[in-house]
């Protein structure tokens, strides 16, 4: 399989998009370690194989360094780091002080930087890669999640700069995600009717599944993407139909 013999770390890999990526890596033959503050409700498995779990708070630099030092001793290598952990509550800018918004930046931007720096020696030795999990929120207005959008914009820029600084030993790319249907989709889109209504706004007619993201991640981690670095791969089902097209009065059937 494409990733046989390779070792991958997926941060926030115990549920949602991260678990989908982890399952895709397992199916591709990789040995997978998922790290998160809490263990998964059930082991992350695929193709008869199970991802190992390591408890880790990515906002603690010393703990992150200890994690990768331990990985070096126990696994001996690292071929791919997927910086997936992140997220944000809904909070308009005026409803929270700068300190609260800074916590969102810490998790979504500084934590991936911390993990990447700690993993770099292992990745250089393996001529491996870093995958940042970005968001379309980083390139469009994100009312209610402005700090998250700003962090994701910064993450994509960080990846492009990192790709130049760390070449040729380490490739760095970003998956830019649109809307994904996970076990927490109802918190963002509402009940089944709400999910269906939101899906109808996507050109491909559905939300992404975690496996869709996982397939793209496997590609970028594999030898098939050996000349791909500093890239941003849009995984958004075609994006969003511009609102002005529906508001305009021209080219409308009577």
Description:
With 254 residues, this protein is of the alpha/beta class. It is built from eight helices and nine strands. α3 runs parallel beside α4 (146-165). The radius of gyration is 19 Å and the shape is globular.
Features:
41% helix; alpha/beta; single chain; seven-stranded parallel sheet; globular; 254 residues
Would you kindly provide a brief summary of this structure?
With 254 residues, the protein is an alpha/beta fold. It is built from eight helices and nine strands. The protein has helices spanning 16-27, 61-74, 98-126, 146-165, 185-189, 192-199, 210-221, 243-247, and strands spanning 7-11, 31-36, 45-46, 49-50, 52-55, 80-83, 129-135, 171-177, 232-235.
Secondary-structure map:
Blueprint: E1 7-11, H1 16-27, E2 31-36, E3 45-46, E4 49-50, E5 52-55, H2 61-74, E6 80-83, H3 98-126, E7 129-135, H4 146-165, E8 171-177, H5 185-189, H6 192-199, H7 210-221, E9 232-235, H8 243-247
Parallel strand pairs: 1-2, 1-6, 2-5, 6-7, 7-8, 8-9
Antiparallel strand pairs: 3-4
């Amino acid at each position: 399989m494409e990733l046989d013999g390779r070792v991958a770390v997926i941060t926030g890999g115990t549920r949602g998009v991260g678990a989908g990526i982890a399952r895709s890596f397992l199916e591709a033959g990789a040995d997978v370690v998922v790290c998160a503050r809490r263990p998964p409700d059930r082991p992350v498995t695929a193709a008869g194989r199970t991802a190992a779990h390591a408890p880790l708070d990515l906002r603690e630099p010393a703990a992150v360094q200890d994690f990768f030092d331990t990985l070096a001793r126990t696994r001996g290598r690292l071929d791919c780091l997927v910086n997936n952990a992140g997220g944000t509550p809904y909070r308009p800018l005026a409803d929270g002080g700068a300190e609260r918004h800074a916590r969102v930046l810490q998790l979504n931007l500084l934590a991936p930087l911390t993990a990447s720096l700690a993993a770099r020696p292992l990745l250089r030795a393996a001529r491996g890669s870093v995958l940042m999990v970005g968001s379309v929120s980083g390139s469009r207005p994100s009312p209610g999640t402005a700090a998250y959008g700003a962090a994701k914009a910064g993450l994509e820029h960080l990846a492009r700069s990192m790709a130049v600084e760390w070449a040729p030993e380490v490739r760095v790319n970003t998956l830019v995600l649109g809307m994904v249907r996970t076990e927490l989709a109802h918190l963002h889109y509402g009940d089944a009717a709400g999910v269906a209504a939101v899906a109808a706004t996507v050109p491909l007619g559905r939300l992404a599944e975690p496996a869709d993201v996982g397939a793209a991640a496997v590609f970028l981690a594999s030898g098939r993407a050996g000349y791909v670095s500093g890239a941003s791969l849009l995984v958004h089902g075609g994006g969003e139909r511009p609102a002005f097209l529906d508001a305009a009065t021209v080219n409308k059937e009577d």
